[in-house]
Amino acid sequence: MLNYYIYNHDTSKTWVTFVHGAGGSSSIWYKQIRSFKSEYNVLVLDLRDHGKSKMRLKDTFNSKYTFEAITNDIVEVIEYLGIEKSHFIGISMGTILIRNLAEMKPELVESMILGGAIMKFDFRSQVLIKFGVVFKSVVPYMLLYKLFAFIIMPKKSHKKARTLFVNEAKKLYQKEFIKWFKLTSEINPLLRFFRAKDIKIPTLYIMGDEDYLFLPAIQLIVDKHIKSSLLLVKDCGHVVNVEQPDFFNIETIRFINSLA
What is the Cα–Cα distance from 167 to 250, expressed in whole angstroms? Predict the structure, then answer.
């Protein structure tokens, strides 16, 4: 089972579950925990081979890396803890896992808050992925990761978020990075399905207005999916919860409370 942390609230029955992205860990939510645990019960996870899931469960995850298998890791924790329903908050690759969970187990999902959501790889992104596939076994993975981080978060104002993700990625081993990278290279059919299907679960996309790789696809989705809305964060890039944490916390808590 994944490593996880729970913060129980004295009176609230509402659960919020945080899912980080590839190369990160539960520590990327450090600016959210205080605000959210004062309002709700909070569950924070380390995905397989990330954070303390890697350290304490070194030989546990023998199944093939697929989005279904990695999503089932999350479901296993939810069901083990007896959580009947939760709001899910994700960042970057974590948003794909949450959307997949909503497809596989919609009864568990109260709402989705998807920050820096990835719902389509544009031409530039696909070229980047193909480059990585060709050179992943030759080029040190940290050089590839730094390149990806810079292309996704290129501005000087993105440096803090970029540095955080690079530092977290250093905790991965080369073979773990390659497993996750192969998963990324096979993602397009799944994302096409997500874009086409309106799952009709309340969804808030919270995107930086400088998230030039991924924002255009989200704008199109929100126009088509009836229970989806988009909140733009000014002067912000891909990792909205790190770059603009106060705004992120206030608006996401407001969204959750609006559904009560």
Answer: 27
pLDDT band of residue 161 (cuts 50, 70, 90) is confident
Of how many residues is the chain composed? 260
Query: Smallest Cα–Cα separation from 206: which of 100, 102, 91?
Result: 91
In DSSP terms, which residues pair with 89 in a beta bridge? 18, 113
What residues does each domain of the chain span? Answer: 4-121+188-258
Give the pair of three-digit tokens for residue 201: 């679960």
Enumerate residues 6+ apart whose C-beta is below 8 A from 138: none
pTM of the shown model? 0.88
Architecture of the CATH domain 4-121+188-258: 3-Layer(aba) Sandwich (3.40)
Helix, coil or strand: residue 169 = helix
pLDDT tens for residues 123-158?
A: 766 676 666 666 656 666 666 667 777 777 778 788
* pLDDT grade for 222, boundaries at 50, 70 and 90: very high
Which DSSP category does 244 fall into?
Answer: S
- Beta-bridge mates of residue 204: 113, 229
Structure tokens at 154: 């290129």
DSSP letter at 158 equals G
Beta bridge partners of 114: 90, 205
CA 237/CA 164 separation, integer angstroms: 14
pLDDT tens, 45-73? 999 888 888 765 455 555 678 899 999 99
